[in-house]
Amino acid sequence: MLAVQQLEAGYGESVILRQVTLQVRPGQVVCLLGRNGVGKTTLMKSIMGVLKAHKGTVSYKGTDLTKRAPGERAKKGIGYVPQGREIFPQLTVFENILLGLEASKEKKRAIPESAIAKFPVLPTMYGRRGGDLSGGQQQQLAFARALASEPDLLLLDEPCEGIQPSIVDDIRDVIRSIKADGKTSILLAEQSLEFVKSVGDYFYILEKGSIAWEGGLSDLNEEVIRHFLTV
């Protein structure tokens, strides 16, 4: 479904990612791990097209998207929940979710029930401004906005960062539900090892901007964790 090949990217003349190769298969939850500052968010931005690649390719369902704009990638079926959520604080909850429809492969006028059914608190807040919500509620809103386009691939960048444990549990349940449906693949960048082990099928570890290790859940043992992830 998603194939990243020999990707190099960064900011200005600074190269952050070096020859990154990974793939996400249909229905998989693939997790991207690594210490702070190794390039996880840079990789997510490069896949979405927010950051242009210096070298390498990003392909989706056999189509080369490397030079495509973020909007084009979204319309191909890629949803994105960025680190920090990036909701529109002056818009209402309802308006924020409506914006997600702009990325739909087919033009939709109404928010799909599937986008909000997983976050039942959101419809009760439709009239509230996004900026008035708690961090956890904003994260749910950003998630629902991405799901509004009914994507085939969902990029989640640090969805558990800075939110209360109860919302983390809700997000875990949502990811498990999406995984059970089998219709949407997920690439998840996350710091919490416990969280990714509870939802992931396959794992990549970034170190100094390169893929240093990859494997399944049974391969993610204490030696690997100690070598690549322990601070």
From TrEMBL:
<dbReference type="GO" id="GO:0015658">
    <property type="term" value="F:branched-chain amino acid transmembrane transporter activity"/>
</dbReference>
<dbReference type="GO" id="GO:0005524">
    <property type="term" value="F:ATP binding"/>
</dbReference>
<dbReference type="InterPro" id="IPR017780">
    <property type="entry name" value="ABC_transptr_urea_ATP-bd_UrtE"/>
</dbReference>
<dbReference type="GO" id="GO:0016887">
    <property type="term" value="F:ATP hydrolysis activity"/>
</dbReference>
<dbReference type="InterPro" id="IPR003593">
    <property type="entry name" value="AAA+_ATPase"/>
</dbReference>
<dbReference type="Pfam" id="PF00005">
    <property type="entry name" value="ABC_tran"/>
</dbReference>
<comment type="similarity">
    <text>Belongs to the ABC transporter superfamily.</text>
</comment>
<protein>
    <submittedName>
        <fullName>Urea ABC transporter ATP-binding subunit UrtE</fullName>
    </submittedName>
</protein>
<feature type="domain" description="ABC transporter">
    <location>
        <begin position="2"/>
        <end position="231"/>
    </location>
</feature>
<dbReference type="InterPro" id="IPR027417">
    <property type="entry name" value="P-loop_NTPase"/>
</dbReference>
<keyword id="KW-0813">Transport</keyword>
<dbReference type="GO" id="GO:0015807">
    <property type="term" value="P:L-amino acid transport"/>
</dbReference>
<keyword id="KW-0067">ATP-binding</keyword>
<dbReference type="InterPro" id="IPR052156">
    <property type="entry name" value="BCAA_Transport_ATP-bd_LivF"/>
</dbReference>
<keyword id="KW-0029">Amino-acid transport</keyword>
<dbReference type="InterPro" id="IPR003439">
    <property type="entry name" value="ABC_transporter-like_ATP-bd"/>
</dbReference>
<keyword id="KW-0547">Nucleotide-binding</keyword>
